Amino acid sequence: MKVVLVDAGGANLGSVHYALGRLGIKARVSGDAAEIAAADRVILPGVGAAGPGMARLRELGLVETLRRLDKPLLGICLGMQLLYESSEEGGVDCLGLLPGRVQRMPAAPGLRVPHMGWNRLQRRTDSPLLEGIPEGAQVYFVHGYCAPVDASCLASSQHGEAFAAVVQRGRVAGAQFHPERSGPFGSRLLANFIEQGS
Amino acid sequence: MLSRRLIPCLDVRDGQVVKGVQFRDHVVMGAIEDLALRYRDEGADELVFYDITASPQGRGVDVAWVERVARLLDIPFCVAGGIRGVEQARAVLHAGADKVSVNTPALDRPALVSELAAEFGVQCVVVGIDSLRDDDGEWRVRAYTGDPDRTQALPRRTLDWVQDVQALGAGEIVLNCMGADGVRSGYDIEQLQAVRAVCHVPLVASGGAGESAHFAAAFEQADVDAALAASVFHAGTVRIRDLKATLRQRGIEVRDDA
Q1: Would you tell me the Gene Ontology cellular component terms (chain B) (predicted)?
Q2: CATH of the domain at B18
Q3: How buried is B95 (Cβ within 10 angstroms: 0-12 exposed, 13-18 middle, 19+ buried)?
Q4: B71 or B183, which is more confident
Q5: Could you give the CA distance from residue B175 to residue B197 in angstroms, rounded to a whole number?
Q6: Quick one: CA dihedral A22, A23, A25, A30, positive or negative?
Q7: In chain B, whose CA is at the least distance from the CA of A45?
Q8: d(CA B177, CA A144)
Q9: Structurally, how many domains does chain B consist of?
Protein backbone atom coordinates (compact mmCIF):
# COMPACT_ATOMS: atom_id res chain seq x y z
CA MET A 1 0.00 0.00 0.00
CA LYS A 2 1.60 3.25 -1.15
CA VAL A 3 0.26 6.27 0.74
CA VAL A 4 1.28 9.70 -0.50
CA LEU A 5 0.75 13.02 1.23
CA VAL A 6 0.63 15.83 -1.30
CA ASP A 7 3.21 18.46 -0.43
CA ALA A 8 1.08 21.45 -1.31
CA GLY A 9 2.63 23.71 1.30
CA GLY A 10 -0.20 22.97 3.73
CA ALA A 11 0.93 23.76 7.23
CA ASN A 12 -0.56 20.56 8.71
CA LEU A 13 1.49 18.31 6.45
CA GLY A 14 3.73 17.28 9.36
CA SER A 15 0.79 16.61 11.72
CA VAL A 16 -0.95 14.35 9.23
CA HIS A 17 2.30 12.53 8.56
CA TYR A 18 2.80 11.91 12.29
CA ALA A 19 -0.83 10.83 12.76
CA LEU A 20 -0.38 8.18 10.07
CA GLY A 21 2.87 7.19 11.78
CA ARG A 22 0.98 6.64 15.06
CA LEU A 23 -1.24 4.20 13.10
CA GLY A 24 1.83 2.38 11.83
CA ILE A 25 1.38 3.72 8.30
CA LYS A 26 4.43 4.95 6.45
CA ALA A 27 3.45 7.71 4.06
CA ARG A 28 5.58 9.47 1.49
CA VAL A 29 5.44 13.24 1.29
CA SER A 30 5.63 14.22 -2.34
CA GLY A 31 5.03 17.01 -4.78
CA ASP A 32 5.92 14.80 -7.71
CA ALA A 33 3.10 14.15 -10.19
CA ALA A 34 4.28 10.68 -11.19
CA GLU A 35 4.66 9.50 -7.59
CA ILE A 36 1.22 10.84 -6.67
CA ALA A 37 -0.40 9.25 -9.72
CA ALA A 38 1.12 5.87 -8.78
CA ALA A 39 -0.04 5.90 -5.14
CA ASP A 40 -2.78 3.65 -3.73
CA ARG A 41 -4.04 6.37 -1.40
CA VAL A 42 -3.54 10.09 -1.77
CA ILE A 43 -4.10 12.61 1.04
CA LEU A 44 -4.27 16.33 0.34
CA PRO A 45 -3.70 18.08 3.66
CA GLY A 46 -4.00 21.79 3.99
CA VAL A 47 -4.02 24.64 6.37
CA GLY A 48 -3.95 28.04 4.84
CA ALA A 49 -5.85 30.01 2.30
CA ALA A 50 -7.45 28.71 -0.89
CA GLY A 51 -5.57 31.09 -3.21
CA PRO A 52 -2.02 30.14 -2.15
CA GLY A 53 -3.13 26.48 -1.90
CA MET A 54 -4.30 26.35 -5.53
CA ALA A 55 -1.33 28.42 -6.69
CA ARG A 56 1.01 25.90 -5.13
CA LEU A 57 -0.78 22.96 -6.83
CA ARG A 58 -0.55 24.77 -10.18
CA GLU A 59 3.13 25.58 -9.64
CA LEU A 60 3.87 21.91 -9.00
CA GLY A 61 1.78 20.89 -12.03
CA LEU A 62 -0.50 18.80 -9.81
CA VAL A 63 -3.93 20.12 -10.78
CA GLU A 64 -4.47 17.65 -13.62
CA THR A 65 -2.74 14.86 -11.67
CA LEU A 66 -5.26 15.18 -8.83
CA ARG A 67 -8.20 15.55 -11.22
CA ARG A 68 -7.26 12.35 -13.04
CA LEU A 69 -6.38 10.14 -10.05
CA ASP A 70 -8.08 6.76 -10.15
CA LYS A 71 -7.26 5.88 -6.54
CA PRO A 72 -8.96 7.16 -3.36
CA LEU A 73 -8.20 10.77 -2.50
CA LEU A 74 -8.83 12.39 0.90
CA GLY A 75 -8.74 16.16 1.33
CA ILE A 76 -8.33 17.52 4.85
CA CYS A 77 -9.55 20.96 5.94
CA LEU A 78 -8.40 23.34 3.19
CA GLY A 79 -7.52 20.20 1.23
CA MET A 80 -11.21 19.25 1.29
CA GLN A 81 -12.26 22.76 0.26
CA LEU A 82 -9.92 22.61 -2.75
CA LEU A 83 -11.87 19.58 -4.02
CA TYR A 84 -14.86 21.79 -4.85
CA GLU A 85 -15.41 23.87 -7.98
CA SER A 86 -14.52 27.17 -6.40
CA SER A 87 -14.03 29.02 -3.14
CA GLU A 88 -15.29 32.37 -2.01
CA GLU A 89 -11.94 32.77 -0.23
CA GLY A 90 -10.00 34.89 -2.71
CA GLY A 91 -12.58 33.99 -5.39
CA VAL A 92 -10.46 31.13 -6.74
CA ASP A 93 -11.30 28.21 -9.00
CA CYS A 94 -10.47 24.92 -7.32
CA LEU A 95 -10.10 21.31 -8.48
CA GLY A 96 -13.76 20.76 -9.37
CA LEU A 97 -13.84 17.14 -8.18
CA LEU A 98 -16.94 17.87 -6.11
CA PRO A 99 -19.78 20.10 -7.27
CA GLY A 100 -20.44 23.33 -5.43
CA ARG A 101 -18.76 26.36 -3.97
CA VAL A 102 -17.03 26.81 -0.64
CA GLN A 103 -18.35 29.85 1.20
CA ARG A 104 -17.42 32.03 4.14
CA MET A 105 -19.13 30.99 7.37
CA PRO A 106 -21.44 33.81 8.47
CA ALA A 107 -20.63 35.32 11.86
CA ALA A 108 -23.49 36.26 14.17
CA PRO A 109 -23.79 37.41 17.76
CA GLY A 110 -22.41 34.60 19.92
CA LEU A 111 -21.20 32.78 16.80
CA ARG A 112 -17.52 33.31 16.20
CA VAL A 113 -15.70 32.86 12.92
CA PRO A 114 -13.27 31.13 12.46
CA HIS A 115 -15.13 28.11 13.77
CA MET A 116 -12.49 26.83 16.14
CA GLY A 117 -12.69 23.93 18.55
CA TRP A 118 -14.37 20.60 19.21
CA ASN A 119 -17.81 20.13 17.69
CA ARG A 120 -20.15 17.21 17.16
CA LEU A 121 -20.73 15.22 13.99
CA GLN A 122 -24.23 14.43 12.78
CA ARG A 123 -24.17 11.33 10.62
CA ARG A 124 -26.22 11.55 7.43
CA THR A 125 -25.26 8.46 5.46
CA ASP A 126 -23.55 5.21 6.39
CA SER A 127 -20.16 4.73 4.86
CA PRO A 128 -17.08 2.60 5.54
CA LEU A 129 -15.29 5.91 6.05
CA LEU A 130 -17.40 6.54 9.19
CA GLU A 131 -17.10 3.08 10.69
CA GLY A 132 -16.47 3.31 14.44
CA ILE A 133 -17.31 7.02 14.54
CA PRO A 134 -20.64 7.38 16.37
CA GLU A 135 -23.36 9.98 16.03
CA GLY A 136 -22.40 12.99 18.15
CA ALA A 137 -18.66 12.22 18.12
CA GLN A 138 -16.64 15.38 18.84
CA VAL A 139 -13.82 16.32 16.50
CA TYR A 140 -11.54 19.34 16.14
CA PHE A 141 -12.30 22.07 13.60
CA VAL A 142 -10.39 25.23 12.64
CA HIS A 143 -11.80 26.99 9.59
CA GLY A 144 -13.56 30.11 8.40
CA TYR A 145 -14.99 28.72 5.16
CA CYS A 146 -17.19 25.69 4.60
CA ALA A 147 -18.91 23.53 2.02
CA PRO A 148 -22.69 23.12 1.83
CA VAL A 149 -24.56 20.03 3.01
CA ASP A 150 -25.45 18.26 -0.23
CA ALA A 151 -25.69 14.75 -1.70
CA SER A 152 -21.99 14.03 -1.04
CA CYS A 153 -22.22 14.86 2.67
CA LEU A 154 -21.70 11.82 4.93
CA ALA A 155 -21.64 13.79 8.18
CA SER A 156 -22.39 17.39 8.97
CA SER A 157 -21.66 19.63 11.89
CA GLN A 158 -23.33 22.80 13.05
CA HIS A 159 -22.05 26.29 13.74
CA GLY A 160 -25.08 28.44 13.17
CA GLU A 161 -25.94 26.69 9.93
CA ALA A 162 -25.15 23.03 9.25
CA PHE A 163 -22.14 22.50 7.01
CA ALA A 164 -20.35 19.52 5.46
CA ALA A 165 -17.90 17.89 7.89
CA VAL A 166 -17.19 14.63 6.04
CA VAL A 167 -17.91 14.23 2.33
CA GLN A 168 -17.49 11.52 -0.25
CA ARG A 169 -18.35 11.06 -3.88
CA GLY A 170 -16.90 7.98 -5.51
CA ARG A 171 -13.14 7.91 -4.92
CA VAL A 172 -13.04 11.49 -3.67
CA ALA A 173 -13.47 12.14 0.07
CA GLY A 174 -12.90 15.01 2.41
CA ALA A 175 -12.87 15.95 6.09
CA GLN A 176 -13.41 19.55 7.10
CA PHE A 177 -12.19 18.77 10.61
CA HIS A 178 -8.64 17.74 11.46
CA PRO A 179 -8.49 13.95 11.88
CA GLU A 180 -4.82 14.29 12.82
CA ARG A 181 -5.82 16.37 15.86
CA SER A 182 -9.16 14.80 16.78
CA GLY A 183 -8.09 12.08 19.20
CA PRO A 184 -9.30 8.50 18.66
CA PHE A 185 -12.16 9.42 16.28
CA GLY A 186 -9.79 11.25 13.99
CA SER A 187 -7.37 8.33 13.95
CA ARG A 188 -10.27 6.06 13.09
CA LEU A 189 -11.22 8.15 10.05
CA LEU A 190 -7.64 8.05 8.76
CA ALA A 191 -7.43 4.30 9.37
CA ASN A 192 -10.78 3.77 7.59
CA PHE A 193 -9.58 5.76 4.60
CA ILE A 194 -6.31 3.83 4.33
CA GLU A 195 -7.90 0.41 4.86
CA GLN A 196 -11.08 0.79 2.90
CA GLY A 197 -10.56 3.73 0.58
CA SER A 198 -13.74 5.22 -0.75
CA MET B 1 -22.67 22.61 19.44
CA LEU B 2 -19.17 23.97 19.77
CA SER B 3 -17.53 23.01 23.08
CA ARG B 4 -15.86 25.52 25.35
CA ARG B 5 -12.17 24.68 25.41
CA LEU B 6 -9.86 24.12 28.38
CA ILE B 7 -6.27 24.88 27.56
CA PRO B 8 -3.31 24.15 29.81
CA CYS B 9 -0.52 26.56 29.05
CA LEU B 10 3.02 25.28 29.24
CA ASP B 11 5.67 27.97 29.56
CA VAL B 12 8.84 26.62 28.01
CA ARG B 13 12.34 27.66 28.95
CA ASP B 14 15.50 25.80 27.96
CA GLY B 15 13.50 22.80 26.80
CA GLN B 16 11.50 22.41 30.03
CA VAL B 17 8.13 23.53 31.29
CA VAL B 18 8.37 26.26 33.93
CA LYS B 19 5.94 28.40 35.87
CA GLY B 20 6.40 31.73 37.58
CA VAL B 21 4.16 34.00 39.58
CA GLN B 22 3.32 37.23 37.75
CA PHE B 23 5.95 36.30 35.18
CA ARG B 24 8.78 36.11 37.75
CA ASP B 25 10.60 33.45 39.76
CA HIS B 26 10.26 30.48 37.46
CA VAL B 27 10.34 26.93 38.77
CA VAL B 28 10.76 23.84 36.60
CA MET B 29 7.55 21.80 36.29
CA GLY B 30 8.82 18.93 34.14
CA ALA B 31 9.70 17.72 30.66
CA ILE B 32 7.66 19.08 27.75
CA GLU B 33 6.62 15.71 26.33
CA ASP B 34 5.62 14.28 29.74
CA LEU B 35 3.37 17.20 30.57
CA ALA B 36 1.89 17.31 27.05
CA LEU B 37 0.82 13.68 27.28
CA ARG B 38 -0.38 14.03 30.85
CA TYR B 39 -2.73 16.85 29.91
CA ARG B 40 -3.89 15.04 26.77
CA ASP B 41 -4.79 12.03 28.90
CA GLU B 42 -6.57 14.17 31.50
CA GLY B 43 -8.83 15.64 28.82
CA ALA B 44 -7.22 18.91 27.76
CA ASP B 45 -8.83 20.19 24.56
CA GLU B 46 -5.75 21.94 23.30
CA LEU B 47 -2.31 22.95 24.55
CA VAL B 48 -0.36 26.17 24.29
CA PHE B 49 3.41 26.25 24.53
CA TYR B 50 4.98 29.61 25.23
CA ASP B 51 8.70 29.87 24.64
CA ILE B 52 8.86 32.63 27.24
CA THR B 53 12.44 33.67 26.64
CA ALA B 54 12.52 33.60 22.83
CA SER B 55 11.13 37.10 22.35
CA PRO B 56 13.21 38.87 25.06
CA GLN B 57 16.33 37.09 23.78
CA GLY B 58 15.51 38.03 20.19
CA ARG B 59 15.56 34.47 18.88
CA GLY B 60 13.01 32.16 17.25
CA VAL B 61 11.41 29.04 18.68
CA ASP B 62 13.50 25.88 18.84
CA VAL B 63 11.54 23.67 16.42
CA ALA B 64 13.07 20.40 17.63
CA TRP B 65 10.73 20.12 20.62
CA VAL B 66 7.79 21.31 18.51
CA GLU B 67 8.35 18.33 16.25
CA ARG B 68 8.67 15.92 19.18
CA VAL B 69 5.37 17.17 20.62
CA ALA B 70 3.66 16.99 17.22
CA ARG B 71 4.63 13.34 16.83
CA LEU B 72 3.10 12.45 20.20
CA LEU B 73 -0.05 14.54 20.42
CA ASP B 74 -3.42 13.83 18.81
CA ILE B 75 -4.98 17.07 20.03
CA PRO B 76 -4.18 20.53 18.68
CA PHE B 77 -1.46 22.77 20.01
CA CYS B 78 -0.31 26.32 19.53
CA VAL B 79 3.23 27.66 19.81
CA ALA B 80 4.11 31.16 20.92
CA GLY B 81 7.31 33.07 21.47
CA GLY B 82 9.75 34.77 19.18
CA ILE B 83 7.82 34.38 15.93
CA ARG B 84 8.75 37.56 14.07
CA GLY B 85 8.17 36.63 10.46
CA VAL B 86 6.51 34.34 7.93
CA GLU B 87 9.50 32.02 7.67
CA GLN B 88 9.73 31.45 11.43
CA ALA B 89 6.00 30.76 11.54
CA ARG B 90 6.34 28.37 8.61
CA ALA B 91 9.09 26.44 10.41
CA VAL B 92 6.94 26.06 13.54
CA LEU B 93 3.80 25.11 11.58
CA HIS B 94 5.71 22.65 9.41
CA ALA B 95 7.21 21.10 12.53
CA GLY B 96 3.62 20.22 13.41
CA ALA B 97 2.11 23.08 15.43
CA ASP B 98 -1.51 23.85 14.53
CA LYS B 99 -1.40 27.53 15.32
CA VAL B 100 1.17 30.19 16.02
CA SER B 101 0.67 32.96 18.52
CA VAL B 102 2.34 36.34 18.25
CA ASN B 103 2.52 38.99 20.91
CA THR B 104 5.47 41.41 21.19
CA PRO B 105 6.51 41.07 17.50
CA ALA B 106 2.98 42.07 16.45
CA LEU B 107 3.21 45.17 18.63
CA ASP B 108 6.58 46.03 17.12
CA ARG B 109 5.30 45.48 13.59
CA PRO B 110 1.51 45.02 13.22
CA ALA B 111 1.84 44.05 9.53
CA LEU B 112 3.18 40.71 10.79
CA VAL B 113 -0.39 39.66 11.62
CA SER B 114 -1.64 40.30 8.09
CA GLU B 115 1.40 38.62 6.54
CA LEU B 116 0.77 35.48 8.59
CA ALA B 117 -2.95 35.53 7.79
CA ALA B 118 -2.30 35.92 4.06
CA GLU B 119 0.21 33.09 4.03
CA PHE B 120 -1.39 30.55 6.36
CA GLY B 121 -5.01 31.65 6.75
CA VAL B 122 -6.50 33.52 9.70
CA GLN B 123 -7.40 30.26 11.45
CA CYS B 124 -3.86 29.57 12.56
CA VAL B 125 -2.96 33.12 13.56
CA VAL B 126 -3.41 33.78 17.26
CA VAL B 127 -2.57 37.13 18.79
CA GLY B 128 -1.60 37.09 22.45
CA ILE B 129 -2.20 40.29 24.37
CA ASP B 130 -0.68 41.03 27.76
CA SER B 131 -2.80 43.68 29.35
CA LEU B 132 -2.69 45.64 32.59
CA ARG B 133 -4.85 48.40 34.03
CA ASP B 134 -2.97 51.66 34.39
CA ASP B 135 -3.46 54.22 37.13
CA ASP B 136 -5.86 56.21 34.98
CA GLY B 137 -8.16 53.17 34.77
CA GLU B 138 -7.40 52.29 31.15
CA TRP B 139 -6.24 48.81 30.15
CA ARG B 140 -3.07 49.04 28.10
CA VAL B 141 -0.81 46.48 26.49
CA ARG B 142 2.62 45.34 27.63
CA ALA B 143 5.48 44.07 25.50
CA TYR B 144 8.42 41.75 26.26
CA THR B 145 6.63 40.34 29.31
CA GLY B 146 8.77 37.19 29.27
CA ASP B 147 11.53 39.18 30.95
CA PRO B 148 10.46 41.50 33.80
CA ASP B 149 13.54 43.67 33.27
CA ARG B 150 12.60 44.36 29.67
CA THR B 151 8.82 44.56 30.01
CA GLN B 152 7.51 47.72 28.39
CA ALA B 153 4.27 49.55 29.09
CA LEU B 154 2.92 50.85 25.78
CA PRO B 155 0.52 53.73 25.20
CA ARG B 156 -1.72 51.43 23.13
CA ARG B 157 -5.12 50.75 24.68
CA THR B 158 -5.99 47.06 24.94
CA LEU B 159 -9.48 47.53 23.45
CA ASP B 160 -8.04 49.39 20.45
CA TRP B 161 -5.42 46.71 19.89
CA VAL B 162 -8.07 43.95 20.04
CA GLN B 163 -9.92 45.67 17.20
CA ASP B 164 -6.76 46.40 15.22
CA VAL B 165 -5.52 42.83 15.23
CA GLN B 166 -8.88 41.49 14.10
CA ALA B 167 -8.81 43.88 11.15
CA LEU B 168 -5.27 42.70 10.39
CA GLY B 169 -6.27 39.04 10.36
CA ALA B 170 -6.07 37.55 13.86
CA GLY B 171 -8.11 34.33 13.98
CA GLU B 172 -8.07 34.11 17.77
CA ILE B 173 -7.13 36.35 20.66
CA VAL B 174 -5.62 35.26 23.96
CA LEU B 175 -6.15 37.96 26.54
CA ASN B 176 -3.73 37.63 29.41
CA CYS B 177 -4.86 39.86 32.24
CA MET B 178 -1.51 40.42 33.93
CA GLY B 179 -2.96 41.86 37.12
CA ALA B 180 -4.67 38.51 37.76
CA ASP B 181 -1.93 36.21 36.47
CA GLY B 182 -0.58 33.62 38.87
CA VAL B 183 -2.53 34.86 41.90
CA ARG B 184 -5.41 32.40 41.47
CA SER B 185 -8.16 34.76 42.56
CA GLY B 186 -10.17 34.38 39.37
CA TYR B 187 -10.16 35.61 35.80
CA ASP B 188 -10.55 39.36 35.27
CA ILE B 189 -14.21 39.16 34.28
CA GLU B 190 -14.64 42.91 33.87
CA GLN B 191 -11.79 43.16 31.40
CA LEU B 192 -12.80 39.99 29.56
CA GLN B 193 -16.35 41.33 29.16
CA ALA B 194 -15.03 44.59 27.75
CA VAL B 195 -12.82 42.76 25.27
CA ARG B 196 -15.57 40.26 24.39
CA ALA B 197 -17.79 43.15 23.36
CA VAL B 198 -15.32 44.14 20.62
CA CYS B 199 -13.91 40.69 19.80
CA HIS B 200 -15.67 38.73 17.04
CA VAL B 201 -13.11 35.96 16.72
CA PRO B 202 -12.57 33.25 19.36
CA LEU B 203 -11.42 34.74 22.66
CA VAL B 204 -9.30 32.87 25.20
CA ALA B 205 -9.25 33.99 28.83
CA SER B 206 -5.86 33.85 30.51
CA GLY B 207 -4.56 34.76 33.96
CA GLY B 208 -6.04 34.18 37.39
CA ALA B 209 -7.67 30.74 37.42
CA GLY B 210 -7.61 29.26 40.91
CA GLU B 211 -10.61 26.92 41.10
CA SER B 212 -13.34 25.39 38.92
CA ALA B 213 -15.81 28.21 39.64
CA HIS B 214 -13.42 30.69 38.03
CA PHE B 215 -13.59 28.83 34.73
CA ALA B 216 -17.38 28.67 34.91
CA ALA B 217 -17.52 32.42 35.57
CA ALA B 218 -15.37 33.21 32.52
CA PHE B 219 -17.64 31.11 30.28
CA GLU B 220 -20.93 32.25 31.81
CA GLN B 221 -20.20 35.92 32.44
CA ALA B 222 -17.66 36.84 29.77
CA ASP B 223 -18.74 34.33 27.07
CA VAL B 224 -15.16 33.40 26.27
CA ASP B 225 -14.58 30.50 23.90
CA ALA B 226 -11.75 28.98 25.86
CA ALA B 227 -10.00 29.32 29.19
CA LEU B 228 -6.28 28.96 29.60
CA ALA B 229 -4.48 28.18 32.83
CA ALA B 230 -1.13 26.94 33.97
CA SER B 231 -0.37 26.78 37.68
CA VAL B 232 -3.69 25.26 38.84
CA PHE B 233 -3.25 22.45 36.35
CA HIS B 234 0.46 21.98 37.07
CA ALA B 235 -0.14 21.90 40.82
CA GLY B 236 -3.13 19.57 40.47
CA THR B 237 -5.39 22.06 42.31
CA VAL B 238 -7.84 21.74 39.42
CA ARG B 239 -8.13 18.39 37.61
CA ILE B 240 -9.41 18.76 34.07
CA ARG B 241 -11.74 15.77 34.32
CA ASP B 242 -13.38 17.14 37.50
CA LEU B 243 -13.50 20.63 36.03
CA LYS B 244 -15.35 19.31 32.99
CA ALA B 245 -17.84 17.49 35.20
CA THR B 246 -18.49 20.74 37.10
CA LEU B 247 -18.94 22.72 33.89
CA ARG B 248 -21.23 20.06 32.40
CA GLN B 249 -23.43 20.19 35.51
CA ARG B 250 -23.80 23.91 34.99
CA GLY B 251 -24.95 23.35 31.41
CA ILE B 252 -21.72 24.46 29.77
CA GLU B 253 -20.90 22.36 26.68
CA VAL B 254 -17.50 20.69 26.99
CA ARG B 255 -15.85 17.82 25.19
CA ASP B 256 -16.86 14.34 26.34
CA ASP B 257 -14.32 12.33 28.29
CA ALA B 258 -12.47 9.80 26.18
Answers
A1: cytoplasm
A2: 3.20.20.70
A3: buried
A4: B71
A5: 13
A6: negative
A7: B94
A8: 27
A9: 1
